[in-house]
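# step 3/5: fold
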Amino acid sequence: MRVRITGLYAVTPDLADTDELCNKVEQALRGGARALQYRNKTAADVLRLEQAAALQSLCSRYGVPLIINDHCALAQQVGAAGVHLGGEDGPLAAARHRIGPQTLLGASCYDRLPLAEAAVAAGADHVAFGSFFASAVKPGAVRPPLDLLTRARAALNVPVIAIGGITADNAPSLIKAGADAVAVISAVFAAEDIEAAARRFQSLFA
């Protein structure tokens, strides 16, 4: 049975220290994060491989899928569960062909339902929309309306993920509108108690 991305989808912050990164991620996993995306836009290839391999080992222990942002080859190299691609990361159909049918493929679809429909047709297993709220990670990102989640949930047969500036206080509105999962960086990994923050997010899906 294929994994479905639901609940808290934790996305890593950019950290150069692999031990620090793994420590923070393990706290999030203990708190109940259901999926992890490794996203590091600044690391060199050697560090990215080191971190991805360490996170894959950690996620395997917790039975949580690791999704690699942007890099199909890296996902294959460390045996990750999947890849997530943005609009400028190349054709989804080519990525699907490269990674094979068993590897998860996620796609960023911003504020466009037609883009999500095309992504699913090209082989995406889940789609992400956002930024729904102001985000320090992507301050210039488009801001889709909440009802996009409702329309996407009705139109698509894959999990719908919300991203962008999400906190435990505003996440319920996204879940009510139709989000199967919320992708979160800062509100989990910048929290004083990462495990408690993750647990609070995951409890919203109970």
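# step 4/5: annotate
The beta strands are 7-11, 35-38, 66-69, 82-85, 104-110, 126-129, 160-163, 181-184.
# step 5/5: archive (pending)
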